[in-house]
Amino acid sequence: MRSSPAPLLATLLLVLSACTTIPRINTSPDTPTLTEPKRTLVLGEVSRGDTRSPDHSGGSTCKNGGRTGQDLDHLYGFEVHETASYRFEFVPASFEGVIQIQKKHKAGPGHFGIGCKAARAGNKATLSLPLEPDFYWVIVDGNLWDEAGTYTLRVDRDTSKTAVIRPEEPALVAPLCARAPLVRPGERTYGTFESKSGGARASCGLLGGESVHRLSLAAPTRIRLRAAAHFQLALEIRSGCHEKPVVCTRADAGHYEVEVTTDLPAGDHYVVLDSTRLGPPNTNGSHLDEARLTGAYVIDAEEVGP
Amino acid sequence: MNTERALLLAILLGLPACASYASASADDRCGPPPAMEKPLASLGHDPKPFEMRHAPEKIFQGKPGGYLYRFEREDSGTTESLRAVHMFRGGRILVVGDHGTALLRDPKAGWQPEATGTTENLHALVPVIHYKDGETITEDRRKNHPSLAVGSNGMAVFRDLSGVWRTESTGTSAHLFALRHLGPKTVAVGAGGVMVERSLEGVWRTVETRTTADLYALGSCGGYLCAVGAGGAMVVCKAPDGELVCIPRPPPTQATLRVVDEHLQIMGDGVWLSYVPTEKTEPRPPASFAPWSAAKDLVAGEEIRATEHNHWGGISEMLAVGRRGTVWFQGGLASDRNHLEKVKLPFEVDFHDVAYELVDGFLVGDKGTIVHLGVQDFVPDHICLL
Q1: According to the 3-state scheme, what is the secondary structure of A189-204?
Q2: What is the pTM of this model?
Q3: Same domain assignment for residues A44 and A143
Q4: CATH code for position A122
Q5: Which residues in A lie closer than 8 A to residue B241 (C-beta atoms)?
Q6: Quick count: other Cβ atoms within 10 Å of Cβ A94?
Q7: How far apart are alpha carbons B362 and B165 in whole angstroms?
Q8: Is A182 in CB contact (< 8 Å) with chain B?
Q9: Count: domains in chain A
């Protein structure tokens, strides 16, 4: 049976129109050319500004609506010297604003957003991010079209109970000590490290995790521990679960093993294995919620002569 | 070929598919149905090939009664043990073995020896598949890759695109048993836990494995590179800053492990290990393995030396080879992975390696043994892509 081609043509046109790129109105190119920041964000100091006198640096890429458009923005540079969690506090006094933290692409030009938070006029936006040493961009922008005004912005180290990188929490570590697998002299101990905020953290480490081992000695012993891991590790020996470290050693940059020799009295000691670096970022390029590190390790223990 | 199967396969593969219950309409949209795939022509050396019927896929049942699998011995022209085989696109097959043996299959002249420039035993062979940025990938380039073989006393030999072999210095005198190509790099492992890594330019360097166990196999283990070997030794490697960092894992078995299969299975002497799933997603911890109970009786007293997966729809399955002519078939892509079948072939030799793609397979082993597997009467699935 033959039928009229009209419906087919109409369908074809419909499909074609659906696939055609429709020009958008009032938008700039997807990848704006950004300048170097004129402003500097200093740890622990309040910065103030008024985006009605904008830097026109390209704007945030996370503002409501999802596209870079108007660049009624201020661009700050923020240099991180030490890996830690950092808390950004942003208060747009007279407009609906947004801050975005951006990191430079490792290869090629341009920056990408690793954290974003918006606030209505007069409200505070707080954003905590673990950051490794680098030079970051912090962009203050209007969260909606035509939004601009005065604001305050500050950044501090974040050691609160919600920070990704934070001090060890005894309540989290006690059960790790209670079920800590043994490290025996003359044997190899295998393990898998999982980062855990507030978990067992070596004093010379960074992330905290769930890797705690027990070393039980019947007599005073000089012991040597060699450890290697898929990540840059730190290794600490304590004489009690929550005691101060007897010794702590960390791998140099680009190295994945450590060795420590120390004299220990008889009794139980705890070996804490930790990482000195964050894990790989999530698909958005950030560590917003967790340090995201896992990897295998081995610890070789041996008694050594005096 | 039935339409439901074509549609289901397309869905499984994530492809848009068209099909119609009206055969004329299907032809209009999809072109003529594919023709029967014929295996490479027999070299005519084996007066009495071994034949068996086998159904590679179990879910759809495929052709009623399966297909005819013909195993046919070919004259290699050597009595040396042949230890590794690779099948290139377009039907070129390369084999290496003891005392520097290398053979290339010519469809008319048969197996032709090549001069490798070494008398060392060659244990492993891989194509060095890497395209440089901006390189035009021609059909000829797809079919023709350089190859790399390694063997006893740290020997490595590189075969360039023109078929000329040259020896390379790996920096180790240990026997090398396995190879794995990883992006621009190629990794080899061997006796005493040695691991060496070759750059695309042919420069070798040592990688610390932190084990002294002999390592016999290399493969991918869920985002990590795995090396396995004697006494159940297992080493997992990753490259956090571009350089391999290898950490031993607790041995999942005391048996010698010889294969890291591409479907997260590890096999060896009387043991077949399968991946233990984890709830954790990204970043994934190193994979764990445990004995696969379904294989227990079928691998007891056996040695699994090599495996190869046939990825073609309708014939997807895994073929494993072992000692005294033993082979195993495991269900593949669109089949029941739990289906494992052991077959004793009438070739009283130990096989060392296998290649298997579409309707051709090659099994190589001791005493210069080369067996060509040809699957007869196979017609590929008729899948229509929009």
Answers
A1: EEEEEEEEEEEECCCC
A2: 0.86
A3: yes
A4: 2.60.120.380
A5: 254
A6: 15
A7: 22
A8: no
A9: 2
- Identify the residue among B195, B247, B276 best suited for mutation to test binding to A, counting A beta carbons within 10 A and taking the highest: B247
The alpha carbon of residue A183 is apart from the nearest alpha carbon of chain B, in Å, by 14
Instruction: Identify all chain A residues contacting B286, using CB atoms and an 8 Å cutoff.
Output: 192, 230, 295-296
Complete edge-to-edge strand list for the sheet that includes strand B195-198: B176-182, B185-190, B195-198, B204-207
Chain B residues near residue A233 by CB distance under 8 angstroms = none
Q: What is the pLDDT of residue B30?
A: 75
The shortest CB-CB distance from B236 to any of A188, A292, A296 is to A296
> pLDDT tens for residues A247-280?
999 999 899 999 999 999 999 999 999 999 988 8
Whole-angstrom distance, CA of residue B35 vs CA of residue B381? 10
pLDDT tens digit at each of 306 positions of chain A: 334 444 443 443 333 333 333 333 333 445 455 578 989 999 999 999 999 999 888 788 888 865 556 788 999 999 999 999 999 999 999 999 999 999 988 877 888 899 999 999 999 999 999 999 999 999 999 998 889 999 999 999 999 999 999 999 999 999 999 999 999 999 999 999 999 999 999 999 999 999 999 999 999 999 999 999 999 999 999 999 999 999 999 999 899 999 999 999 999 999 999 999 988 887 777 776 777 899 999 999 999 987
Among A45, A2, A16, A218, which residue's Cα sits nearest to residue A138?
A45
Q: Is residue A96 part of a domain?
A: yes
Q: What's the mean pLDDT when you consider all of chain A?
A: 87
Flag whether A16 is in a domain.
no
Is residue A280 less than 8 Å (CB to CB) from chain B? yes
To the nearest whole angstrom, how far is the Cα of A190 from the nearest Cα of chain B?
A: 6
Q: Are residues A191 and A281 in the same domain?
A: yes
A296 with A184, same domain: the answer is yes
Cα A248 to Cα A250: distance, rounded to the nearest angstrom:
7
Domain of A228, in residue numbers: 170-303
Q: Is residue B250 within 8 angstroms of chain A, CB to CB?
A: yes
A9 belongs to a structural domain: no
Contact A184, A104 (CB under 8 A): no
- ipTM for the predicted complex comes to 0.86
Could you tell me if A44 and A120 are in contact, meaning their C-beta atoms sit under 8 angstroms apart?
A: no
- E strands, chain A, are 39-40, 46-50, 74-80, 84-92, 97-104, 111-119, 125-131, 134-142, 150-157, 188-200, 209, 212-217, 221-229, 233-238, 245-250, 257-264, 267-275, 294-303
Does A83 share its domain with A121?
A: yes
Q: Say yes or no: A207 and A248 in one domain.
A: yes
Query: Nearest chain A Cα to B251, which residue?
Result: A190
Does one domain contain both A122 and A180? no
Length of chain B: 386
Angle at A12 between CA A8 and CA A17, to 5 degrees: 150
Q: Would A11 be classed as within a structural domain?
A: no
Residues A55, A101, single domain; the answer is: yes
